[in-house]
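Here is a tokenized protein:
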Amino acid sequence: MAATKTVRKTTAARTTAKPAITNGQAEKTSNGVEIKQNDRIAVMKTYKIFINGQFPRTESGRYYTINTSEGTVLNMCLSSRKDFRNAVVAARNAQEKWEGKTAYNRSQIIYRIAEMLETRRAQFEQEIVSLGISAELAKKEVSKAIDTVIYYAGWCDKYNQIFSTVNPVASSHFNFSSTEAVGVVAMFADENSPLLGFIAAVMPVICSGNTAIVLASEKYAPCAVTFAEVLATSDVPAGVLNILTGKRSELLSHFASHMDVNAMYAHTSDAALKKEIDTKAALNVKRVRIDSENDWFSDKAKSPYRIMDFLEIKTTWHPIGI
């Protein structure tokens, strides 16, 4: 039997390949929309809160918006009472170990924060500019913030020698007074400073062994969250510094009245807010410091006495044998 020869016909439709689109070229979809090969969707940054060394979203699921000078809308977490309570637990768990580190080691860790800020200064400057501040002022603010971190890193192993004393007493005893951290501090950062006011308030608190929960400036919150990324990639133990974003009006009562918070700091000139803090902080005899106005660029804004504001004095009596 003769072999059957199979002939396949190739149609033009099957042999004509569709030309590839390269960068810069365009094609139209069936509905006439033109798409370029090099078009892409930008990856927008997600701003979260910072609790116990992690970046959870607020448990409330709420947010508020910030409009940048570039026309971008940023979604910021609207922190809740539960977020604050979680931050207090994290701060309390971290406080004893943080205070238990040697002063020299705390100094090294805080200096590392300055190193990380220095390597990311361009990012912070750009972020501050996007929030409506001039490039010149943004550069000045980041530089001063880095210098402030270094300033308090240098004080970690010195403030105790300055503020401790040997006391003369009219009995057969040695009498020593020494400093110790007050504990967990709840803080309201300066509403009108993106980075410097935040750092200038926080550093003297944590350098002495305290831990803190800070509510960032409502309108400049992105800088505080970006600073949290610096903390997460430095040597600061989880829980030492916890950062929330949201509204003072919603969280004030919880910050001032929480029974496991030992001290409260607020930067405000609002008389009603000051009175509410003082009243509710009295429930467990919190230490309270309130700054009304501060020129954070002034040399007077940095002082070892800001460290002393959140220290307790412990006095020890030791009998002398006769």
In short: Residues 1-24 have pLDDT under 50 and may be disordered. The radius of gyration is 28 Å. The first helix runs from residue 12 to 15.
